[in-house]
Amino acid sequence: MTSYRILRARLGVLATAALLATGAVYAKGPSPEPIEPIKPHRVTHPAKVELGKKLWFDPRLSKSGFISCNSCHNLSMGGSDNLKTSIGDKWQKGPINSPTVLNSSLNLAQFWDGRAKDLREQAGGPIANPGEMAFTHDLAVDMLRSIPEYVAEFKRVFGNDKLSIDEVTLAIAAFEETLVTPNARFDQWLKGDKKAITAQELRGYQTFKASGCVACHNGPNVGGNSFQKMGVVEAYQTDNPAEGRSAVTGKDADRFNFKVPSLRNVALTYPYFHDGAADTLPEAVDTMGRLQLGKKFTPQENADIVAFLKTLTGDQPKMVLPILPPSSDQTRRPQPFE
Ligand code: HEC
Ligand code: HEC
């Protein structure tokens, strides 16, 4: 065995050990890098996507007539609200930070604790959540049925007159699947354009890999594909009562395990962590280094990693703002203050 092959074999063992230790896995493709480029989304049913976009922006799916999906996942701001925790019906303080919807179709499950298995299952949640849109599925469907343009559009898209919450969530999920952000400068680098990132950004990526960040943040979404403990080496201090994955599995071992967030577009999706406690990327990187890896980065290393993370901002979804059909005389009126 040449010394190169011995080194490769050793590295392989080390990498495997790191992965086993954290329980993370990433697909081994032809690329030797643990991060893969995002593929552009191919729309197969444009009419369904267009309907889903209307529903996404329609605040009449909320009791107040004021809150839409876009209120807390603002597509002009990286698909998030940039607040520590979201604001819901009647200005209620939300329990947890709103994750971005960008590239969320690539995640293994939805929500910080993964309690929804996919986008479709997720989409019904906020409409009926009293702390978010505070409506019911029946009232949402009644609202849509009271508007002839919506009735006709659902019929055109689904080929039947059902118009139930199932069709609503199918259309929203179809729209959300289009919200991918390919072509980040880092993806251009992965595809061979060595000039796409600077020397500092490359150094940051190397530190990101060598320190072990990639054990949890890997794959096309640089995360989103496993549940991991927050506070592996050192406990995380927070007043936020969220328990993480154990709320779903009931297993004590899953306490404080959260879905590893995607680091795609992370420069846009501040503040960070499930409680929104870290306002800036340098702060989040410092916390991750210490709590997950027992590593205190120098200011230079921290700045390098932050520079690398900023190369993960991809092409943001471009769209024409939908014009929503007006309410009819039969449409129930909003109740923002009741
Ligand atoms: C009042 C604010 C608010 C509104 C309105 C809202 N969301 Fe959310 N959304 C959140 C918060 C907070 C979470 C995280 C909840 C959790 O993990 O427990 C979330 C999570 C999600 C996720 C999971 C993302 C991931 O990676 O885990 C998706 C997808 C999503 N919302 C889509 C929607 C859709 C579709 C609508 C409209 C039907 C909507 N949201 C309305 C605040 C909101
Ligand atoms: C053991 C797995 C693991 C390792 C290793 C790890 N992370 Fe994380 N990372 C997580 C989890 C889990 C969260 C979510 C924690 C929370 O919100 O409470 C997270 C959150 C983040 C966030 C905030 C993202 C957001 O949208 O809120 C950033 C930034 C981040 N990690 C960067 C890093 C960097 C840089 C490293 C290496 C120094 C690293 N991570 C190492 C699991 C890991």
UniProtKB/TrEMBL annotation:
It is found in: Periplasm. Residues 47-155, 199-313 form the Cytochrome c domain. This is Cytochrome c peroxidase. Binds 2 heme groups. Its main location: periplasm. GO terms for molecular function: cytochrome-c peroxidase activity; electron transfer activity; heme binding; metal ion binding. SUPFAM superfamilies: Cytochrome c. Keywords: Electron transport, Heme, Iron, Metal-binding, Oxidoreductase, Periplasm, Peroxidase, Signal, Transport. Transmembrane segments: none annotated. Binds 2 heme groups per subunit. Its cofactor is heme. PANTHER family: CYTOCHROME C PEROXIDASE-RELATED. It comes from the Bacteria.
